[in-house]
Design a protein that fits this description.
With 729 residues, the protein is mainly β. Among the domains are: 2-139, Immunoglobulins (Immunoglobulin-like), CATH 2.60.40.10; 304-318 and 569-729. It is built from one helix and 56 strands. A five-stranded mixed β-sheet has the order 2-9-8-4-6. It has a five-stranded mixed β-sheet with strand order 26-25-24-23-55, with no helix packed on it. A five-stranded mixed β-sheet has the order 38-37-36-35-56, with no helix packed on it. Strand 46 and strand 47 (613-619) form a beta hairpin.
Length: 729
């Protein structure tokens, strides 16, 4: 068709030329018009640059008719083509101002420089023959070794990129030397755990992860039988329990007995009359009395219906800007609540942190105060974490970086507290600013820091340089592996999902091998995210990025879904997502007026693992005129949800808190008497049917639930609890 249009144009121009000539009658006519064809080719040199052997590179020339007569192209060819070729048909007749393209491709088969000449011949008055160099340099394909023995690394010439296939079944060696008989599985090094056993009940048997050696530690309490009337000790034959002399004073632990003494190896006392007032040391009971020799009271929990307020625990009264941060709460296995309270000091003296702990229905356990590193200087990118480890030890980590004018100097402080709030360990790490940390069930840690490579004040010409460093330490602090990669001044450690360690840095999501630290996969992404909900059994990680949820396969990094499919300011996630034990992805969404962008409604949305909407529940809520009043005062952070093992979800916003069952029905609503009271702190569920939530930032309230608990089968909430911080098995 293009050729026919060109021929028609030629005929029209030829006819016009004949008419002009005929009117002259062979004489000199000042009105005679001479029509001349011209040609213009761009570029004048085509350099394809360095091209790996076997990779197809391509370039384009534009041929333009620039005269006032048709351009007749008689030849388009390559001289000495070598690996070059022309891959399209070019129009042979171009009308004035018309253009066409010549496409040249090459797949180099040998190393070194190659050059061919593109020849274009035409009826152009000037430059009827044009010769244009076409060049490339054949180079070796780039190295593709990702330093992971559990992947087969190949440069794919069709994709012009490295590919990494899982090398399942390949023998490997984990950095944790207590992993034996390891082989590769889905890109990671997995094996059995070495067993250490000296067949003695009087020792604690351990495998030392740094070298795989068995260690047998004397265990003084191994033979403790919790009987105050026996002397307990180890002997070569095992544990010995020798009764104490009859009449030895003791305490049978019963508040309703007196005159306790040992008799035949047992502690016994004389019972007090029923009805005698006592104290069972449980703030969740009232009217404690002795009954049949046992001190007990009436439960204030049992008397409440689901969704009713049970108790209030007030935080330290403070004159101005004190708050409990959104994620800095934890709960131990025995139900002790831990919080990190932020208290601003007067006269711009900075701030102080108070770690507080309480049990039951408001019984204080301890308070520990300290000055954080961000109390003295202006800082950026503050990271804080609290973890509850074995024996209720609290690990508190605060990582900061100073403002750019101070050279982004990083500083991370760590405190380790015992169950009474006494400092076991404290230290200042100035080598990097913490981005996140996972406490694993074996007592080891995996954490990330932004590691500075320069110490100057950054400028546009000489910016700051840094890497993301991810480290795994054993329970004794020995480094098992270290992974380092290029980063901007913001990077994120996203958590551990089964055998993978997730991160975000320098525009890429990625996963490392839990046992070796080697890269399993790395995918470029336009999204930035602070956190990711993880479900190993679903092979799914879900992050909130910009105005969407992004679902990613944990095993290979493939994007599964975006919700909503199109990013918009009219319908946005108002919380980070959580994943329930039965595989549902849950999130609170906010719908805004398309003209004013003022929020209008809140809804609770349930997605399946492919990001499809299962159901949406509109939540009864009316936004105040100034909707920012509903935001957490610390940078307007959002609320965080929790989902129990029975599928009931808990979420608060403004002055309202909801419990929503799996079918989308609202089980109950709790409304605070304080306007816009609830903050973004994660709700925590206790074994006794109490849920703890943060009201106004200055008090914790206990609400009666139906008794559902946290589950390990999914990412039930963004929380820090015993032996499962940012970790899903």
């Amino acid at each position: 068709m293009e050729l026919e249009r060109s021929r028609a144009t030629v005929r029209r121009f030829a006819t016009a030329a004949l008419l002009v000539t005929a009117s002259c009658g062979g004489c000199e006519d000042p009105g005679f018009v001479s029509l001349t064809p011209g040609v213009d080719v761009n570029p004048l040199v085509l350099d394809l640059g360095e091209v790996p052997l076997g990779v197809r590179a391509q370039g384009v020339f534009t041929v333009r008719s620039r005269g006032d007569a048709p351009l007749m192209i008689s030849r388009v060819d390559l001289e000495d083509p070598g690996d070059f070729e022309i891959i399209n048909e070019t129009g042979r007749v171009l009308a004035p101002a018309q253009s066409d393209v010549v496409q040249v491709a090459a797949r180099p088969s040998e190393l070194g420089a190659q050059e061919a000449t593109l020849v274009i011949e035409s009826n152009a008055t000037e430059n009827p023959r044009i010769e244009i160099p076409v060049r490339l340099i054949g180079v070796e394909p780039p190295p593709c070794d990702d330093l992971n023995v559990c992947t087969t690394d190949v440069f794919d010439t069709e994709l012009a990129a490295c590919t990494h296939e899982f090398a399942d079944g390949t023998p490997c060696q984990a950095a944790d030397r207590c992993i034996i008989d390891a082989v590769c599985s889905r890109g990671v090094c997995l094996g059995a755990t070495k067993t250490c056993n000296d067949n003695s009940v009087c020792t604690r048997d351990l495998c030392r992860q740094i070298d795989g050696e068995c260690v047998f530690l004397d265990n003084e309490i191994a033979c403790e039988d919790d009987n105050p009337c026996t002397a307990d000790f180890c002997s070569p034959e095992g544990c010995e329990h020798v009764p104490l002399s009859n009449g030895t004073a003791c305490d049978d632990g019963d508040l309703c007995t007196q005159g306790d003494a040992c008799f035949a190896g047992a502690c016994v006392g004389t019972g007090m009359p029923d009805g005698t007032a006592c104290d069972d040391n449980d703030t969740c009971t009232v009217e404690d009395t002795c009954r049949a020799g046992v001190c007990s009271g009436t439960s204030i929990i049992a008397s409440k219906a689901e969704g009713e307020h049970v108790f209030t625990y007030d935080l330290t009264d403070w004159p101005e800007r004190a708050f409990l941060h959104r994620r800095e709460v934890s709960m131990s296995d025995d139900g002790i609540f831990y919080g990190l309270d932020h208290l601003n000091l007067p006269n711009d003296q900075g701030l102080t942190h108070v770690v507080f702990a309480f049990s039951q229905c408001g019984t204080p356990v301890y308070e520990f105060a300290y000055r954080p590193p961000d109390a003295h200087v202006r800082v950026s990118y503050v990271r804080r974490a609290m973890q509850i480890g074995m024996n209720n030890q609290v690990r508190m980590v605060v990582g900061v970086r100073q403002q750019p004018m101070n050279g982004y100097e990083p500083q991370t402080t760590t405190y380790l507290l015992n169950d009474a709030g006494q400092v076991l360990l404290s230290g200042v790490q100035t080598l990097g600013g913490e981005t996140g940390r996972s406490l694993l069930p074996d007592g080891s840690h995996i954490f990330g820091v932004v590691w500075p490579l320069s110490s100057h004040t950054p400028t546009p010409e000489n910016p700051a340089r840094q890497n993301l460093v991810v480290v795994r330490e054993d329970v004794s602090g020995n480094v098992l592996w270290r992974h380092e990669r290029e980063s901007s001044d913001w990077a994120e450690f996203l958590g551990v999902a089964g055998p993978r360690v997730l991160f975000w840095a320098q525009g890429r999501f990625g996963a490392l091998d839990f046992n070796t630290g080697a890269t399993v996969w790395s995918q470029e992404t336009p999204f930035i995210t602070k956190e990711m909900a993880l479900a190993t059994n679903l092979d799914l990680g879900v992050a909130r990025a910009s105005n969407q949820l992004i679902g990613v396969e944990i095993l290979n990094g493939t994007q599964v879904f975006r919700f909503p499919e199109t990013s918009t300011f009219e319908y946005i996630p108002r919380t980070d997502p959580v994943i329930s034990a039965d595989g549902r992805v849950l999130v609170m969404m906010e719908r805004r007026n398309p003209d004013t962008f003022q929020p209008e409604t809140l809804s609770w949305v349930v997605l399946d693992a492919q990001g499809q909407v299962v159901r949406e529940t509109i939540l009864p809520y009316t936004f105040p005129l100034d909707f920012l009043e509903t935001r957490h005062e610390d940078f307007n952070d959002d609320p965080y949800p929790t989902v129990a093992d029975d599928g009931v979800a808990y979420i608060g916003y403004g002055d309202t808190f909801w419990a929503i069952d799996p079918s989308g029905n609202i089980r109950w609503t709790y409304t605070s008497t304080i306007e816009n009271a609830f903050t973004g702190t994660v709700p925590l569920l206790r074994d006794d049917g109490i849920m703890l939530i943060n009201e106004t930032g200055r008090r914790i309230v206990g609400i009666r639930t139906n008794g559902g608990q946290m589950s390990d089968d999914g990412w039930a909430s963004f929380r820090h609890d015993n032996e499962r911080t940012n970790f899903t098995p």
